[in-house]
Amino acid sequence: MMKAIVNVFLKAGVLDSQGKAVHHALASLHFDNVSNVRVGKQIIFSLDEKEEKKAMADVTKMCEELLANTVIEDYTIELVK
Amino acid sequence: MKVTILQFPGTNCEYDTQNAFKSLGAETEILWHKEESVPSDTDLLVVAGGFSYGDYLRSGAIAKFSPVMKAVINYANNGGKVLGICNGFQVLTEAGLLPGALKRNESLHFLSKHHNLKVVNNDNIFLEKLHNGDVVNVPIAHHDGNYYIDEKGLKELYANNQILLKYCDESGNEKNPNGSVDSIAGVCNKERNVFGLMPHPERAMEKILGSDDGIKMLQGFLEA
User: What is the CB neighbour count within 10 angstroms for residue A69?
Assistant: First the structure.
């Protein structure tokens, strides 16, 4: 069994309105040292797979087909044994 | 003229859409998403608005894997006419039948109001009843209506006259409610048989409800 952690964020260059709103809210709490706030989502699941290469290939396919919309989003994959 | 209207779990504009096309004299059928084929006598397939699958993951992202969507993609690839309204537009972009994607509105608010739209290209069956530059008033009701396409894609849209409608004020000057690239409200594919827009022409069919500009828009399909 493996655990897959997928992070999906808007691509750099695609305006992240939620990140901007959170940044403003943090600034209003006087956290003036904050910049580059991005809001994304994390999808976590177990994967019945022993071989890391196969797991990575599967999760990449999942991201390309469903978990991310690659027109606007980038994704990262982390596998934990 | 037969109009087939798709219904996913969470679709909520299928009956308005049916009513609109019925009032224009079309025969209509609502097609549940578990069906695996498009009725063969279909002249226009409409992916209606709503919140398919609760907008989970992304608007339209789950609906694209519904059983009926394979048939819809085949239907479109064989030249069948497809119209996506609101969530239907999101489903068609997710399914790769239309370019671009719909992001969260820039204000982060759900927008529900009448808005003016300018006809940008009437060189297609959808808007051929209208003239370029015409302004129509139609309701918008969306949270994820912020149209995005990269620079290269945008150039292609302009080069192929694929931009159908832009948000504007009553005199036709661009006015952007949701952050869409170049105030784009609706686009079509290169082949001009797949159309998508965020605004709801099916909700603008009677003057007493604020506007009947939807008639001129949807009628284009009936006389094609």
Answer: 23
Kindly state the DSSP code that residue A11 receives in the 8-state scheme.
P
pLDDT at B134: 97
Overall fold of domain A2-80: Mth169; Chain: A , (3.30.1280)
- Stretch 105-134 of chain B: residues touching chain A, C-beta under 8 Å: 105-108
- Which of B13, B86, B168, B188 is flagged as catalytic? B86
Q: What is the pLDDT of residue B224?
A: 58
Burial (Cβ within 10 Å: 0-12, 13-18, ≥19) of residue B111: middle
CATH for B153: 3.40.50.880
Interface pTM, i.e. ipTM: 0.88
CB B147 within 8 A of CB B100: yes
- The 10s digit of each residue's pLDDT in B23-38 is 999 999 999 999 999 9
Domain residue ranges of chain A, discontinuous segments joined by +: 2-80
For residue B48, the enclosing domain spans 2-222
Comparing alpha-carbon positions, the chain B residue that sits nearest to A20 is B106
